[in-house]
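Problem 12. The chain below contains 362 residues. Write out its predicted structure in token notation.
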Amino acid sequence: MPQLALPYSQIRGGSSKGLYFLAEDLPASAAMRDAWLLALMGGDHRQIDGLGGADPLTSKVAIVSRSERPGVDVDYLFAQVVVGKNTVDTRPNCGNILAGVGPFAIESGLIPAGNGTTRVVVHMVNSGKECELLVQTPGGNVTYAGDARIDGVPGTAAPIICHYRDLAGSACGSLLPTGNTVDVIDDIAVTCIDNGMPVAIMSAQSMGIQGNESPEELNNNRALCERIYRLRIKLGERMNLGDVRQLAVPKMCMVSRAQTGGAISTRTFIPDKCHAAIGVLGAVSVASACMLPGSVAAEFAELPQGNNVVLSIEHPAGEFSVQLDTEKTDQGVRIVQAGVLRTARLLSRGEVFLPEGIQGAL
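Solution.
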């Protein structure tokens, strides 16, 4: 059987990039679909026989289709091809790759472009949550050029505004999946939170670091990496994620006081490699934890006043601003909506080839 040609787009979404497919071009069977994605991206550490970039931030996939849900334009399934593990994880969302879903949906003809700005409401299949994207479409065409700048990406581009709705418990079932603001595991105080992304937050000092180290320095700290791995396995069970040895969640985030005027400083592992920046929904979960009295993050956070606040989450490549709309309740604080600014750019479009025999392997 010859190689199978599949239409695709490669898009930089936020500070990640990945392959974007129409759902109709991939198998309906999850097992077959994942086998195809591994063959297309590459399952080994180098991803030498696929289009993956041998890094978690460049080994991502978006699967998009027109939605039949009322008030929703498209459905978006995110898949993380876990580098070197030969597995595909569809548990988490990815807010960076989500930023490219709006342009992809318009460019693919799933929805028509407006004149000026096009609103795209996305159902995130992984979590069942929704996000509204505002995409710049002057003259009825997607533009990628603009003045918006995000840390971790060179140059500037057109802004994509993302409004996330009701994110709590996206993968774990509740905002605080253990039922506690703080848990102590292996003598480490941890806040487990899921406001769009399952994240375990601990102080940098408790993990034996300062919190200002480079990703390279942390990745070379084998004792730290092994400690994070052991802790993550234990936390996966407590966060209702089960056995997470082959998953990309929970993200492990070490926090310290802000160093450049932000709300808090972060160093995040996904799952066992330090992120060069921080993920969109990971930043939302960290920002949300900053607002919870008694959490590990709140101990270090510098918070603005008011119910509608912007928190600058510092990371190795700069900062990530998260707008949170909150309201006070008898139980404390409820996060109503989160807003972030991202950018995206179409990098390539064409056909990617599935190796012979894969399509009939399962």
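Discussion. The mean pLDDT is 95. Students who got a different answer should revisit the alignment rule from Section 12.3.
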